[in-house]
Amino acid sequence: MKFPTHFSAKPSHYNKEAVHYDTFNEKNSTHINQFLEKIFKKHRVKTILDLTCGTGAQVLWLAKLGYKIIGSDINNRMLKLAKDKARKENLDIKFIKGDMRTTQAGQFDAVITIFNAVGHLTKSDFEKAIKNIHMNLNHKGIYVFDIFNLRYFLKDDNITKLTIDWQKKSENTTVREIQYSTINEEGILTSYDIYHEQEGANKPKISKAFQTLQIYSAEQLNQMLQKNGFEVLRQCGIDGLNLIETTTDRIVTIAKKK
Ligand SMILES: C[S@@+](CC[C@H](N)C(=O)[O-])C[C@H]1O[C@@H](n2cnc3c(N)ncnc32)[C@H](O)[C@@H]1O
User: Fold this and answer.
1) What is the chain's pLDDT, residue by residue, as a tens digit (258 residues)?
2) Are residues 144 and 159 in the same domain?
3) Which of 108, 148, 179, 255 has its CA 20 to 30 A from that of 162?
4) Ligand 1 pocket, residue 48 CB under 6 Å
């Protein structure tokens, strides 16, 4: 089987998905957000930079808890949705458009990139992002991120657990997303999507898309972070439970600037 080549995502990557993003993803953020809360309390974090804020799943949650937070993202549409939600909720959050490989927004107690966001980069671009994150952190600041666990998804038929068939109805429109994924030994996870969008009794609009993500084992992440000025404090699941290489699907890594 021929696998697509993985490139770092273009700024426009989420243009199409942005409009449906919250419909399918908003509720999935609760566990990771609750875990972030615990991590930040433990590490006495007060200021946070979210370099891949998307539609605001983490920035809104954390701003409501009183953290001083900046949201940044490379995609205009995702960023606009986040800004609109913050305005509606009267939250004082600064947003900037930027690339996690290059954005310099100041010096923070913590930097986050949540929900497989670094998987949108190639390995060498992720190293650039790690170096950049280092520069955005205070002395001993922490970097917290998650990414799918390569070991888990290479095992047995675990990759099939990513298969989704979601349907949501809002007012007069029904949206259905069907997705299946494949993976290779290099950690390139390819997902194929079909979207059905039907307004009333009209003929459904059908569109297709695919995307690749670079995913990692805990050991690979550890090595990349150590090489680029970080000490890895902990790697675990998004529920905060200890990492088990063959059963944890998403690895949360907490790394401290050395
Ligand atoms: C899966 S979404 C996650 C968004 C949000 N953190 C959440 O949990 O819903 C990944 C986000 O990363 C952003 N992204 C991808 N490549 C980026 C880059 N090089 N710099 C900054 N943002 C990037 C995308 O635009 C998208 O909003």
Assistant:
1) 677 899 999 999 999 889 888 877 767 899 999 999 999 999 999 999 999 999 999 999 999 999 999 999 999 999 999 999 999 999 999 999 999 999 999 999 999 999 999 999 999 999 999 999 999 999 999 999 999 999 999 999 999 999 999 888 878 989 898 999 999 999 999 999 998 989 999 999 999 988 999 999 999 999 999 999 999 999 999 999 999 999 999 999 999 999
2) no
3) 255
4) no
Ligand 1 close to Cβ of residue 130 (< 6 A): no
Distance of alpha carbon 116 from alpha carbon 105, whole angstroms: 22
| 60-64: Cβ within 8 A, 24+ apart | 60/85, 60/86, 60/89, 60/91, 60/93, 61/29, 61/33, 61/36, 61/37, 62/33, 62/36, 62/37, 63/91, 63/92, 63/93, 64/89, 64/91
The pTM of the whole model exceeds 0.85:
yes
Atom of ligand 1 nearest to the CA of 129: 19
Report whether residue 213 contacts ligand 1, using a CB cutoff of 6 Å: no
Q: Are residues 206 and 223 in the same domain?
A: no
- What residue numbers bound the domain in which 178 lies? 153-213
